[in-house]
Design goal:
By secondary structure, the chain is α/β, with parallel strands linked by helices. The chain has helices spanning 7-20, 36-42, 53-56, 67-70, 72-85, 114-125, 135-145, 157-174, 194-199, 219-227, 241-244, 248-257, 314-324, 334-344, 353-356, and strands at 59-63, 88-93, 105-108, 151-156, 184-188, 233-237, 260-265, 277-280, 289-292, 297-301, 361-362. The protein has 15 helices and eleven strands. Helix 8 links the parallel strand 4 and strand 5. The longest helix is centred in the middle third of the chain and has 18 residues, at 157-174.
Length: 377
């Protein structure tokens, strides 16, 4: 599943794959997946910063991402905070970013070197001697962030997929982010609604709300299994792996080898060219449902234009597809699908479209939602 997929659609997709097709292989990203425990720890409300904390913190670290390309509104927020509020900015990434010019420290680490670099920053933040080839750069970043300061860290989801999750938690502990009011982590996903799809269960290591589920393959492992013909069928929901995911040639071969491909897409692309069935996907302006902001805020999508031709809501197509596969969901509307999702996600407990309203709601801020993500099993 990809970035054009709502939480409701993601929930139904993973049910179809797991319950109707009896397959554990579900993923919403092209670069692997966080482990279940790491996902739960990184989603801890005590470590979750709001976007407006950027305006109130003393310093911001942008780590492994260029928000101008991956989350432009956040890029603008950081720029305004630096210019108007005097927030100190540090940037650390594999390549130059658009924010480098306004940063007190703008440093590089080698591709694949994020884990070692972040551990080095954590050590320097504890007044220890940082280690590794980027020790000097790590020291500069730690000095820019300061000690005993309110710090927001905006980090790319790709870094955790590359093994840096433990390092991020190490850095968060060294900076004592959980103890400070306007501090914490904000994930910058590579695909829109990455956090929402993960919480809805579109991941190979857990079900909705990080609950128990049989372990499956990540997207890259699914590609390899299609290439070797160990897997013979695939559902592509709002994704074009031939264009967007690593190893495009591998994905092209994988889709050529597949016996049956179902795709949901707004446009023809390099992946739908291999599909046996293509369902027309809705645009955001046609869709009813919810998505999740990277800081955890659930937000409503409301249809603003009619569906063209015979295009139907994505959730309804998925409910009917589930029924055709002998999975009767009993769901007749987008709000009902969300209620079913909320019933399986402890930290969404009791949430409704009415409460989400026009401005959205962060479950971390709800008095009634006292259940944080936890690892079970």
């Amino acid at each position: 599943a990809g970035g054009g997929t709502s939480n409701e659609e993601g929930y139904l997709l993973q049910r179809i794959v797991r319950e109707a097709l009896r397959s554990p292989h579900v993923d919403s990203g092209g670069r692997g997946s966080l482990g279940k425990e790491a996902m739960s720890q990184l989603a801890d409300p005590a470590l979750s910063a709001r976007v407006d904390d950027v305006d109130r913190a003393e310093s911001v670290l942008v780590l492994g991402t260029d928000p101008l390309h991956e989350m432009p509104i956040f890029d603008l927020r950081v720029r305004k905070a630096v210019r108007r509020e005097g927030i100190k900015l540090a940037v650390a990434s594999e390549r130059p970013t658009s924010l480098d010019g306004g940063a007190e420290a703008a440093v590089r680490f080698a591709p694949g070197g994020a884990e070692q670099f972040v551990h080095a920053v954590a050590a320097a933040s504890r007044a220890e001697e940082p280690q590794g080839p980027t020790a000097a750069e790590a020291g500069r970043v730690a000095a820019a962030l300061g000690r005993d300061s309110e710090v927001v860290i905006a980090w790319s989801s790709r870094l955790a997929n590359e093994g840096a999750a433990a390092a991020l938690l190490d850095l968060a502990g060294s900076l004592r982010l959980a103890e400070r009011e306007h501090s914490g982590l904000i994930e910058v996903p590579e695909d829109a609604n990455g956090r929402g799809l993960r919480e809805a269960g579109c991941i190979p290591v857990a079900g909705p709300g990080f609950g128990d589920a049989a372990a499956g393959r990540s997207a890259s492992e699914i590609r390899a299994a299609l290439e070797s013909e160990e897997l013979t069928a695939v559902v592509l929901a709002n994704v074009d792996p031939v264009r967007d995911w690593p190893d495009t040639d591998g994905w092209r071969t994988a889709l050529q080898n597949a016996d049956f491909i179902v795709a949901f897409s707004m446009f023809e692309n390099g992946s739908t060219a291999h599909a046996d069935v293509v369902f027309p996907a809705e645009s955001h302006a046609e869709k009813e449902g919810t998505v999740t902001h990277p800081d955890g805020r659930l937000q409503r999508l409301r249809p603003n234009i009619p569906h063209p031709g015979d295009v139907r809501p994505g959730w309804r197509v998925l409910v009917e597809l589930a029924a055709a596969l002998d999975l009767e969901t009993g769901l007749d509307s987008a709000p009902e699908v969300f209620e079913a999702l909320a019933a399986e996600v402890p930290f969404y407990a009791g949430l409704t479209y009415q409460e989400i309203g026009g401005t959205g709601v962060r479950w971390q801020d709800r008095d009634a939602a006292s259940v944080a993500p936890s690892v079970s099993g």
